[in-house]
Design a protein that fits this description.
Elements: H1 15-22, H2 29-48, H3 52-57, E1 64-65, E2 73-74, H4 76-89, E3 94-105, E4 110-120
């Protein structure tokens, strides 16, 4: 003799239950944008002060840096050499600032679209 038991959940038409299942927490983009701006401002301040150690400190040990028209830099030591070379080439009175153009994303990833600007201060 065999006995089989089968069970399942009853279908639901409860709109609130369905809505709760599909709600995904959205990131607070204003807060994230402020956090990114704070990091960019700190980076620009270090760049303007030619503070190589602070700039390199923003990178992970296994970071890869890919700058326009330059070879890829792998690891902090290579990145430090690249930053030092950039500082040596920089004209006097050049200031770096960053501009955020757009910010978008979801609960797992946020992307910032921005650009660095180099400004040369004119002495009077």
């Amino acid at each position: 003799m065999s006995i089989f038991t089968v069970a399942c959940n009853a279908p639901t038409n409860d709109a609130a239950t369905k809505a709760a299942e599909t709600v995904v927490a959205q990131p607070d983009m204003a807060k994230i944008k402020a956090e990114i701006k704070a990091i960019e401002d700190a980076w620009a301040a270090a760049s303007n002060a030619k503070d190589v150690a602070t700039i390199v400190g923003f990178y992970a040990d296994d970071a890869i840096s890919m700058n326009d028209d330059l070879p890829m830099l792998v690891g902090k030591a290579a990145i430090q050499k690249g930053v030092e070379a950039e500082m040596a080439r920089r004209k006097e009175n050049t200031k770096t600032v960053f501009e955020t153009l757009d910010l978008y994303g979801d609960e797992s990833r946020v992307t910032e679209v921005g650009k660095p600007l180099k400004r040369i201060a004119l002495e009077r």
